[in-house]
Specification:
Helices cover about 25% and strands about 15% of the residues. It contains 5 helices and 6 strands; from the N terminus they run βααββαβαβαβ.
Length: about 180
């Protein structure tokens, strides 16, 4: 769904690296396509991945929600529910970047890339089924607003309420602000 721009392909913080080494590389898939955030021609990468998404429609999307309510790297200032693009380069806001430090992915905020390639909200919402898994107390406010706030690009995750087959899974900590 997303990848940092400029990280080496073997950087442990890269999402493709993580998926390859922790999950997808453990099974004999015929082919796997990852976003390449370290490519020489980013516009070509956006076109390549968009073409793949359109050629092979998505059945299942597994995603999380960021502390600021982002999905993939659709931070509030770049999220557009009607985005004409399927894949784009975005600048990451400070909350997203700091979350990466707090999660232990990077030692300091100045080490977190400023840009990422992300699937847009329409691309994510095109999946037949959306499964959103959100643990930890640091996401409690985002979960509260996702469920109780207006559907708005100010909290991109609220768009999940518009999808017939979206499911949200929380732990007790991330759901602590909800009335259960």
């Amino acid at each position: 769904m997303d990848e940092y721009v400029g990280l080496p392909a073997d950087a442990p913080q890269g999402f493709g690296y993580y998926l390859k080494n922790q999950i997808l590389g453990k099974f004999p898939f015929r082919s796997i396509n990852y976003l390449n955030g370290n490519c020489r021609h980013p516009d070509e990468e956006l076109k390549r991945y968009t073409a793949l998404l359109q050629q092979y429609p998505t059945d299942i999307v597994y995603m999380g929600i960021g502390e600021n309510g982002h999905i993939a790297f659709n931070d509030p200032h770049v999220a557009h529910f009607d985005d004409p693009e399927w894949v784009k380069i975005v600048d990451l806001d400070k909350t997203s970047r700091m979350q990466q430090v707090n999660d232990g992915c990077f030692d300091a905020i100045d080490k977190v890339p400023l840009y990422a390639i992300t699937l847009t909200v329409p691309a994510l919402m095109s999946g037949r089924y959306l499964f959103c898994i959100v643990p930890t107390r640091s996401k409690a406010m985002a979960i509260y607003h996702t469920i109780n706030g207006p559907v708005s690009e100010a909290v991109p995750a609220t768009c999940l309420r518009l999808h017939e087959h979206a499911r949200l899974y929380t732990d007790m900590e991330s759901a602590e602000m909800l009335s259960l």
